[in-house]
Write a structure and sequence with these properties.
Strand content: 15-25%
CATH architecture of the largest domain: 2-Layer Sandwich
Shape: globular
CATH topology of the largest domain: Nucleotidyltransferase, domain 5
Radius of gyration: 25 Å
Number of domains: 2
Number of strands: 12
Largest sheet: 5 strands, mixed
Strand order of the largest sheet: 3-2-1-4-5
Helix content: 25-40%
Oligomer: single chain
CATH class of the largest domain: Alpha Beta
Distance between the termini: 54 Å
């Protein structure tokens, strides 16, 4: 067009083929090399969330968290939750740890629960809350670059979206509470039918060896907050005021630790010592700054 020539698209394509600068769709296809299974049970656990209408028209859509052993294809943990979030994964992780112990590593996608989206993030030492908890438990977290890389759990999701949906229908299960109770028996039947023998007989799970109170402190949302001159700091669109005492008066201009637990409790601590506080101002209005991730949008819209 620039030089005033007019040729058909097919002619141009043949010229490009002759010069080796055009490849067919078949030639452009990329193939992912298969990855061998890990050799030992508990060496690598693939985790993922599958958003689906698990109860069909009997109930609303929800997410199934799936933990599957890479060496044996054993379903280690299944749990229905409203959406993929840090606290829902904390809940599933706690159940996993009490049942099986600590694995060597978890393998996930790049969801923001597992991976910091901003490389220049100021808080969190470059890791998410879930990553920080695993680090304290001496468990490694690996993030896959593609869905094919964690094909074990992806294929399990497709199988569950067919087999589990039918079993839930036959059992008349129509909500998450009944579904989670049903999953224990289903998991045992599924593993008896589909799990594989590992290449080596070793079980690499380690004992938990963490007190319940300490585990609750690990599986919570922890942040640092700067204390202003009025002994106040901002947290989740709230204004928190520390009660004035000998300890809190010395905290002006310093950072305190906040511990947000799954049950809604919030603790403020300084070097491990709990500080009494009160909510000075609470703003529950929804602002334009409140960002909701795509994977949690359905749950948030249902709440609204």
């Amino acid at each position: 067009e620039h030089h005033g020539f007019k040729v058909s698209r097919e002619t141009l394509r043949k010229w490009m083929i002759e010069d080796g600068i055009w490849l067919s769709r078949k030639q452009r296809r990329t193939f992912h090399q298969p990855r061998l299974r890990r050799e030992c049970y508990g060496e690598l656990i693939q985790i993922d969330g599958s958003d689906h209408r698990w109860f069909e028209d009997r109930g609303g859509p929800c997410t199934l968290l799936v933990f599957i052993d890479d060496a044996t294809s054993t379903l280690m943990e299944l749990r229905f939750v409203k959406s993929e979030s840090t606290f829902s994964y904390f809940e599933a992780l706690e159940s996993y740890l009490h049942t099986h112990g600590r694995p060597v590593a978890f393998y996930s996608d790049k969801h923001s629960v597992f991976r910091v989206s901003k490389t220049d993030a100021k808080n969190g030492a470059g890791m998410t809350q879930f990553g920080r908890a695993l680090n304290e438990l001496n468990i490694e977290i690996l993030c896959a670059n593609s869905s094919q890389a964690k094909g074990r759990v992806e294929r399990a999701n497709r199988t569950l979206q067919d087999r589990l949906v039918k079993e839930l229908r036959l059992a008349g299960v129509s909500n998450m509470k009944a579904g989670n109770a049903f999953l224990e028996g289903f998991k045992a039947r599924f593993n008896a039918k589909f799990s594989k023998a590992p290449a080596k007989p070793d079980n690499l799970h380690r004992a938990l060896n963490v007190e319940p109170d300490r585990l609750a402190e690990v599986l919570c949302w922890r942040e640092n907050r700067y204390v202003g001159k009025q002994l106040t700091f901002s947290y989740d669109r709230k204004r928190i005021m520390l009660e004035e005492n000998e300890l809190s008066r010395a905290l002006v201009g310093k950072y305190v630790d906040t511990y947000a637990f799954a049950d809604g409790r919030l603790e403020v601590r300084w070097k491990g010592q709990s500080l009494p506080y009160r909510v000075f101002d609470m703003d529950q209005r929804v602002t334009h700054a409140a960002v909701t991730e795509n994977k949690r949008l359905s749950a948030v819209l249902a709440h609204v």
